[in-house]
Amino acid sequence: MNKEFNILALPGDGTGPEVVNEAIKVLEKSSEKYGSKFKFTNNDLGGDRYLKTGELVTNKDIDQFKNSDAVLLGAIGHPDVKPGILEQGILLRLRKEFDQYINLRPVILYPGVDTPLVDKSPEDINFVVVRENTEGLYAGAGGYIHYGTENEVATQESINSYYAIHRCIKYAFEYTKNNNRKKITLCAKTNVLTYAHDLWERIFNDVAKEYPEIDTDYAHVDAVCMWMVKNPEWFDVIVTDNMFGDIITDLGAMIQGGMGIAAGGNINPEGTSMFEPIGGSAPKYTDKNVINPLACIGAAAMMVKELGEEQYSEDIENAIIKTAIGLESLSAGKMGMGTSEVGDMVLNYLLNKNE
Ligand code: IPM
Ligand code: MN
User: Fold this and answer.
1) pLDDT of residue 332
2) Rounded-to-integer distance, Cα 45 and Cα 53, Å
């Protein structure tokens, strides 16, 4: 019997719906071959709905989430909505509500994709960032005094709990072990964040003792940025806090060929996870059939893996690689072929794998 998965599709804004369509097409037309079945439910959360109704995440949305095995998100972000509202009210709210405590972001240069790093090739750029996804500077701790006056003081505190750091680092080691990777680098700033990142380092060193077969390394975040450009081959798995993870994964997306290719997962290993292309809503490319859907199809592959279908996931990824080799240029989210044709290409490679 086919394994059935309930997937909540959250296409969102801008080019989100176009890329989610391609990912759904690929899954719907290939699932039978892999003995699984996807039931998609659509949810219209996003900037358009907010502008029409004033609604962000409602109880009904939350129920839909709870009834899903996973969520596939397109993009959230609307040019007519003040920055911050949708990010806080939707994306960060959902991460928090579902305790998606890991943000997993592979930085893998596929053959056929251009990187701005002139001397680097796919063998050099192949690592995964495990970003803590619930606290640090994202915890929302802080406030104003004397608001709106010249005496104003604003604070924004970085919250670092043993609990959240430990589960993140533990996940990173387990991920390394289960994915045949060899080394973890802790990316922090222990020379300045002498309390918060000291705690990170102590927990990292403690957990490392449980995994003697895994090599460990430490680098300050500024050095990580330098080495991601100069020696990306030094990295295998990087574990880091929320803010640093946010920043270094945009750099990662660029060295792996741009936002059109980078995918990520907001993961709750015990709950509902949410997968997304990390490129944003790209309003000016909306409905032009020009946006690259590979990042979203890659997010779908990550989702399939998290649902336990490893072979299926690997085959989707290989189909993406073959497609990338076949495409002329993938820089900056644009490419020489239409969005839906690229989706078709991935699907063809996937279905004809053994032919
Ligand atoms: C990301 C984004 C979000 C973040 C924003 C939109 C809140 O940049 O997923 O990396 O900072 O986490
Ligand atoms: Mn970001």
Assistant:
1) 41
2) 11
Cα separation values, 333 from 129, 264, 269, 294, Å: 21, 16, 30, 9
Give 292-305 as a DSSP string.
--HHHHHHHHHHHH
- Residue 69 vs residues 63, 72, 277, 350: alpha-carbon distances, Å: 12, 10, 18, 23
Residue 204, judged by CB atoms within 10 A of its CB (0-12, 13-18, 19+), counts as buried
Nearest CA to ligand 1 atom 12: 246
Does any ligand 1 atom lie closer than 6 A to the CB of residue 132?
Answer: no
Indicate the length of the chain as a whole number: 355
State whether residue 119 is helix, strand or coil. Answer: coil
Which residue of 92, 104, 267 sits with most ligand 1 atoms within 8 Å of its CB, as the best mutation to test the pocket?
92
Task: Please give the model's pTM, rounded to 2 decimal places.
Answer: 0.95
HEC profile of 177-245: HHCCCCEEEEEECCCCCCCHHHHHHHHHHHHHCCCCCCEEEEEEHHHHHHHHHHCHHHCCEEEECHHHH
Structural domains present in the chain = 1-97+257-355 (3.40.718.10), 115-142+161-252 (3.40.50)
Cα 246 to ligand 1 centroid, rounded to whole Å: 6
pLDDT digits (tens, 9 = 90+) for 117-146: 999 999 999 999 999 999 999 999 999 999
pLDDT at site 1: 60
Q: Report which ligand 1 atom has the smallest distance to the Cα of 246.
A: 10
Ligand 1 atom index nearest CA of 250: 10
259 lines ligand 1 (CB under 6 A): no
Cα of 296 vs centre of ligand 2, distance in Å, is: 16
Tell me the best of 246, 254, 267 to mutate to test the pocket of ligand 1, counting ligand atoms within 8 Å of each CB and taking the most.
246
Protein residues with C-beta less than 5 angstroms from the ion ligand 2: 246
